[in-house]
Design goal:
single chain
Amino acid sequence: MEREAMEFDVVIVGAGPSGLSAACRIMQLAQENDRELTVCVVEKGSEVGAHILSGAVLEPHALSELFPTWEEMGAPLKTKVTEDHFYFYTGEKSATKLPNFAIPKPTHNEGNYIVSMGNVCRWLAEQAENLGVEVYPGFAASEVLYGDDGSVKGIATGDMGISAEGEEKDSYMRGMELHAKYTLFAEGCRGHLGKQLISKFGLDDGKDPQHYGIGIKEIWEIPPEKHQPGLVVHGLGWPLKESGSSGGAFLYHADDNQVYIGFITDLNYSNPHVSPYEEFQRWKHHPETLKYLEGGSRLSYGARAIAKGGLNSLPQMQFPGGLLIGCDAGTLNSVKIKGNHTAMKSGLVAAEAVVEALLSDAPPAQLDSFEAKVRDSWLYDELYSTRNFSGYMHKFGFMLGAAMVWIDQNIFGGKVPFTLHDSKPDYAVLKPAAECAKITYPKPDNVISFDKLSSVFLSNTNHEEDQPCHLTLADSAIPIQSNLPIYDEPAQRYCPAGVYEVVEDDQGKRFQINAQNCVHCKTCDIKDPAQNITWVTPEGFGGPNYPNM
């Protein structure tokens, strides 16, 4: 059965901050130039915002450029940051609160807002539709389409109603082709199609490999007397430092007696016994965290990988027929611990390049003007000034690395006369399990800490069970024959949703994939030491359904 095709001027893959900002700005510029353009946004989540997970403290710079009257327009930015606290967790029961002058300047949050980025994206989608953008949630872009000249000509959405054996069910529905003059890929960190495009066009040639973290987040409702709207807490140290790993924690007091808490584990950790999920559960029991959570109740849970390599790992973002934008490329400012404002700015710059090309007499196949526009923007200035962050932390370790970041940012303003590079991919740093201390994690108390499956339940994750597994193995023998004896199969621990298990039965040990649990964090695609796991798109509507993450 042939696929039906629809034609647009611009197709955008992903209804996140970058994709929706680009869509809105394209339509604004089209109206300013009295030009009618057609723009389509496809989103794999069941609704806009269903797959959005972020801390989040939002710097409103890019939003103000897009919609200067966002406050009057009802944008869901309600809780302005009132205080910044930063802790160095020195042990299981101890912590030192650092004075503001000891914190890198970019991490200060004056003028920022504590937000649900899921709700911000829902609001952006409303604005996009009001401007004439067609937004289609529940449609997973599964394939890049190429023209005869090798340029990208659009995407195809996945077929629906395929059984686990690959047969067409009664509910079978062929995917659609969406053709465009330009296609923008805004899938978020480790985008399935973005990964393919980077490889096909060599967009990362001469760049450092991308570096990642896994961010795990919960929303809690806490007693009113403990709630301090606008309080932002960050911290680092224990428990990750016990295994020589790095990362950090956050606790944001939002509105309605809610706190957003989360834990980021850098995926360059070397001990395969580390479980980012269990490290998060341990941190919640620290007195500086526990004092807020006691007497509260957990409302939501989710996880998502973070691209944190910065400018040194940023691939070329333009290619024939389209652009990579936002976290699909890796525009997060890791010193600020923020990526939403930079993702949005990349979308705004992309919109300018796209509309400029579409208004020309002969639109070019490749938007080469985009790179110059990025370099002339504050987006590039931010990424350039923080380019050495990963290098400092990975080369010098936790304590010395943090000191180097402070000197770089507070004394030199990010303008040190050198650039550090980190050329080792995160998956390649794992040491054999026999060389590393085994970690025994405490059992959850089901009050403050919880097991993975009860957490996945709170993410509202669901996939059609009778469909091909979207977590594919290049070699099904590797997990048991190689990863298990060498690394004690780390997929059992790095996955925050209990997707991967080593099960023993009468036939011996086997590798079990519980794809139904997958929250689409992409950690397996990143951290597997054999690079044997590839995440591909499941059927549309599948995955988590975050209400307000």
